[in-house]
Amino acid sequence: MKTLTAVLLAGGESRRMGTEKATIVFSGEPLWQRQIKLLRYLGPEEILVSARTERSWRPPDTKLVLDQAPSRGPISGLTAALARTRTSHLVAVGIDMPFVTAAQLHDLCYRANAGYGVVPTIGGCAEPLAAVYPVEAYVDFTAALAGNDWSLQPLVRRLAGEGKIQLVSVSEAEAELYRSLNEPQDLTLRRR
To answer: Is domain 4-188 classified as CATH 3.40.50.300?
Structure first.
């Protein structure tokens, strides 16, 4: 039986944005609140917040997971979250991905099964920050973090080759659901 832990990835430095992304108000609510609500909809057994330090906005019913220093970006957050996962799968979403819908994440969770997760792809590139990982991937994440290539793209390809994740192609119409807010001008973008 598939069980879920959820993680909100909020460990970025927000250099290009110029301010902490989590507290930016988007469509009437702070990004952190929007994304936590999205994860709660999935009914996970536990919600983790992955960050480099404690966040004042973190809800008390979530658990903080700190990146191991030195942080290597999203791979650090995902590795730390997988280490704390006591369920069969970890569903991850980035703090800066407000266009991802509950239906889209629910579909990814539905497709995941015993021993393998699901990572969407757009034009052949993985979208690893809105994905479902099996706990079995922890070993691979740990090995990649110990290496010198911290990019998630080669790691996702390796996991797919080992049968630990299924790559699911996202239609052109759904590709916009995975857009990230990285710079101030991105805040003026709305779903087309």
So the answer is: no
> Could you count the other beta carbons within 10 Å of the beta carbon of residue 25?
11
Which tokens belong to 115?
């021993």
CA–CA gap between residue 192 and residue 70 (Å, rounded): 38
Radius of gyration of the chain (CA): 15
**pTM confidence score:** 0.89
Place of tokens 């988007």: 26
Domain ranges of the chain: 4-188
**DSSP string computed for 97-117:** -TT--HHHHHHHHHH-BTTBE
pLDDT digits (tens, 9 = 90+) for 13-22: 555 544 567 7
∠ CA 173-150-141 to the nearest 5 degrees? 85
